[in-house]
Amino acid sequence: MASDNGLLLEDYFRHLAVERRLSPHTLVAYSRDLKLFFLSNSSPSVDAITSADIKHHIARLNRRGLSPRSIRRALSCLHSFFVYLVRKGLLANNPAMGVKAPKIARKLPRVLDTDQTAQLLVGKVATPIEKRDRALLELLYGSGIRLAELVGLDIKDLDLANGNARVLGKGRKTRIVPLGSHTVTALKTWLATRADRNPEDPVFIGRGDRRISPRTVQLRVKRAGMKALGVDSIHPHLLRHSFASHLLESSGDLRAVQELLGHSDISTTQIYTHLDFQHLAKVYDVSHPRAHEKKEQGQ
After folding, report:
1. Are 73 and 121 within one domain?
2. Backbone Cα Rg of the chain
3. What is the pLDDT of residues 7-43, one digit of tens each?
4. Catalytic pick from 55, 170, 222, 279?
5. In a domain, 251, yes or no
């Protein structure tokens, strides 16, 4: 990779980290995608790159067996990089403009039904760890927050008296989420086990009173699923999906669900309308007298 290109990439990554405040995980993905492009591309400098170079790169990724989702991410990364260079006056045009990414089949997220969710959240809790686990389960399902948002919560972010919490979401965007009575009770029960807590402390802690890790939360949620439901496929994001699906099924208010989930684009939230329709279709098939043709007598 030419040294000038390397300097441009350094400037761009600094822009992403400081000005756009992208997460470390996203920065790693952008870095990997851009460096792979420049290592694979023969053009010596960015102003020599053409749309054909971008298309050839997309074809290379396809031949390597990358999924359509990964290829779309790589193209989006290139597009954003060239937009940055155009805005800086370093390029006249964006060579990625107009290059189409492969379509991806949108998978419907799996969700728990309300009975399964209730099973997951019943039973007595006695030890501090049990109380912590119940609180994080209630919070994940009761508010629909992301795993990273839960892990990043500090005690000062909770307003249990008014039943809400301030979370830091994607793109470093802050939003307020409501907390139901079960969630508030579970959080109070958990926090009562920590006599020396301070407002700056994390809400959920693990070994050594350090902030709980995302991996630990995943393992504890999985363990709770095994204990309550006998399955090992329960994970934090499944509870977020279940929260959204159940809320939309009850309210029909897509905009409200979008706000609560912290989705910047309502099209991301609309996938839950398909889940809701699936549920309605099943009810129709089972219940409606005209859903199935009756067999004629004698057949």
Report:
1. no
2. 24
3. 888 889 999 888 888 888 888 988 899 988 988 877 6
4. 170
5. yes
